[in-house]
Amino acid sequence: MPEKLKSRKFWQSVAGEVAGIVTLIYGAAAGEIVATIAGAAITVLVILGYLKAEGDIDKAREGK
Protein backbone atom coordinates (compact mmCIF):
# COMPACT_ATOMS: atom_id res chain seq x y z
CA MET A 1 0.00 0.00 0.00
CA PRO A 2 2.77 2.57 0.67
CA GLU A 3 3.78 2.37 -3.01
CA LYS A 4 0.24 3.44 -3.99
CA LEU A 5 0.68 6.68 -2.04
CA LYS A 6 3.67 7.51 -4.28
CA SER A 7 1.73 6.83 -7.48
CA ARG A 8 0.83 9.77 -9.74
CA LYS A 9 -2.16 7.83 -11.03
CA PHE A 10 -3.47 7.52 -7.49
CA TRP A 11 -3.13 11.23 -6.72
CA GLN A 12 -4.63 12.22 -10.06
CA SER A 13 -7.57 9.97 -9.26
CA VAL A 14 -7.93 11.58 -5.84
CA ALA A 15 -7.94 15.04 -7.46
CA GLY A 16 -10.53 13.86 -10.00
CA GLU A 17 -12.73 12.47 -7.24
CA VAL A 18 -12.53 15.72 -5.29
CA ALA A 19 -13.45 17.70 -8.41
CA GLY A 20 -16.37 15.38 -9.12
CA ILE A 21 -17.67 15.52 -5.56
CA VAL A 22 -17.36 19.33 -5.42
CA THR A 23 -19.25 19.59 -8.73
CA LEU A 24 -21.88 17.16 -7.45
CA ILE A 25 -22.39 19.07 -4.19
CA TYR A 26 -22.39 22.46 -5.93
CA GLY A 27 -24.92 21.24 -8.47
CA ALA A 28 -27.20 19.84 -5.79
CA ALA A 29 -26.95 22.99 -3.64
CA ALA A 30 -27.61 25.30 -6.58
CA GLY A 31 -30.42 23.17 -7.94
CA GLU A 32 -28.51 22.63 -11.18
CA ILE A 33 -29.46 19.22 -12.53
CA VAL A 34 -26.77 19.29 -15.25
CA ALA A 35 -23.99 20.06 -12.74
CA THR A 36 -25.29 17.34 -10.42
CA ILE A 37 -25.28 14.76 -13.22
CA ALA A 38 -21.84 15.92 -14.41
CA GLY A 39 -20.42 15.60 -10.90
CA ALA A 40 -21.82 12.11 -10.51
CA ALA A 41 -20.50 11.11 -13.95
CA ILE A 42 -17.02 12.51 -13.19
CA THR A 43 -16.90 10.59 -9.92
CA VAL A 44 -17.89 7.28 -11.50
CA LEU A 45 -15.66 7.68 -14.56
CA VAL A 46 -12.59 8.53 -12.48
CA ILE A 47 -13.07 5.35 -10.45
CA LEU A 48 -13.55 3.25 -13.58
CA GLY A 49 -10.51 4.83 -15.25
CA TYR A 50 -8.29 4.15 -12.26
CA LEU A 51 -9.48 0.54 -12.03
CA LYS A 52 -8.85 0.05 -15.76
CA ALA A 53 -5.34 1.49 -15.51
CA GLU A 54 -4.46 -0.68 -12.51
CA GLY A 55 -5.93 -3.74 -14.23
CA ASP A 56 -3.80 -3.10 -17.32
CA ILE A 57 -0.70 -2.78 -15.15
CA ASP A 58 -1.50 -6.03 -13.34
CA LYS A 59 -2.12 -7.78 -16.66
CA ALA A 60 1.24 -6.55 -18.01
CA ARG A 61 3.02 -7.80 -14.89
CA GLU A 62 1.49 -11.27 -15.31
CA GLY A 63 2.73 -11.44 -18.89
CA LYS A 64 6.37 -10.98 -17.88
Could you explain how this protein is built, in words?
There is one protein chain. By secondary structure, this protein is mainly alpha-helical. The longest helix has 31 residues, at 33-63. It has helices at residues 8-30, 33-63. The protein starts with 7 loop residues before the first helix and ends with a helix.
Topology (elements, then pairings):
Layout: H1 8-30, H2 33-63
Helix pairs in contact: 1-2
Pick out the low-confidence regions.
none
Between the first and last Cα atoms, what is the distance in angstroms? 22 Å
Strand content bin: under 5%
Work out the helicity level.
Answer: over 70%
Order of helices and strands: HH
Estimated radius of gyration: 15 Å
The number of distinct helices, counting runs of at least 4 residues, comes to 2
The main β sheet shows up as: none
Number of strands: 0
The secondary-structure class comes to mainly alpha
- Average residue-wise pLDDT: 91
Shape: elongated
